[in-house]
Give the backbone structure.
Amino acid sequence: MKKISSTILTLLIAANASALNLSLAECREMALNTDESLKIAENNLEGADLDRGVAKTQYLPKFAGSASAIYTAPDSKIGDMMTLQLRGAYMAGINLTQPIYTGGKISAANRMAAVGQDVYRQQLRATRMDVIADAEKAYWTYVGVLEKVEMTKAYLALMDSVYEMTNNSVEIGMANRQSLLRVNTRRSEIVYRLNQAQAGADICRMALCRAIGVSDTTTIHPTESISVSDNLPMMNNDVTNRPESIILSKNIELKKHQVTMTRADFLPVVGLQLGWSAYGNIKMKGWSQDEAGNPVPFSSTTNDNGFSGILSVQIPLFHWGEGIKKVRRAKLDVENAQLSLQRNTKLMQLEARQNYNNVVTGLELIRTADKAMNEADENLRMMREQYEVGLNTLTDLLEAQSQWQTSYSNLIEAQTQYRINQVEYLRSIGELD
């Protein structure tokens, strides 16, 4: 199928084109480029990437700087003969804090952040599949309804020709006007059905416009045919590639890491802190005595700096069994996550089998409807030829046309449903990317 680039799609949408010739691949691409939920999922994944980057920084030392200026009045007295003057004194420093051992909490946090990335990546896949499924189902529904519109038009054309033949028979006295009235009544019914089909097609067109992100006034001409091949896809009940299954598996990993995080709260913590500080403009004034014992005034200003280092160890001693209970509780969450995966895997496998059965049944319905359509087509041809030479009645011809219309409608519905069943099956096994 022809691929259309994102740039062209964006230009088409920006121009709000009044008409689009749209293939299924182009429909998918436009839906993926415009869907808001997909953009939200992409933002969530980007946020998870940032969270992972934040978690990695926990391994690295933290630097902090500080500075302060001090002004006090009046001066502080130290004893009877000395005062401390802090007018414009200052302090400044830089500290480095490095965790050495945290009980595995930092490593667990990094692993949890990595799992979080995977979860959001799978949520993005799931959202992408939903967008594709909605777009494809809207596309095939619209194609099917357009087929019904064309079928009803063909049915109306058949009735017009019958009306013309009956009218000619009335004019030459070979049929009564009651027959003409019956044909005209049937024709009015077909016109009514055609109006219904066209109204339904317009609703389906607007639904497709919404799915691909264009104005609901846009005219869309699908380029794909509703007809399907007679090849049945291989049965596959493996749901391990399905985003929901992967998310459930990742949830087990998260719960296991949470056990480590919980246990780390009750393990020793070792940290190192290094610092350098400078201080100055600290003035001392007072009186001292010389060698003769005479009072002598003095003053001094202190400006200095220095390094410091602190190695700290924090060891939890006794918490009344709190740690054991919290770890046991976290392990129960792991077990519940495992049970949830087992239960939901069975449900997803059942869904996949049901969807595959729908595909198989849909193909059988197409084969049956196609056979009935061929028979109805041949029956209509024979009835028409016989009616033209007076070998059967108008009732027989109208009945043959009605059977033809019913068979044609059944075939279109079977083909449309088969396309939708295919979409649902591929989504249920995680292969609708």
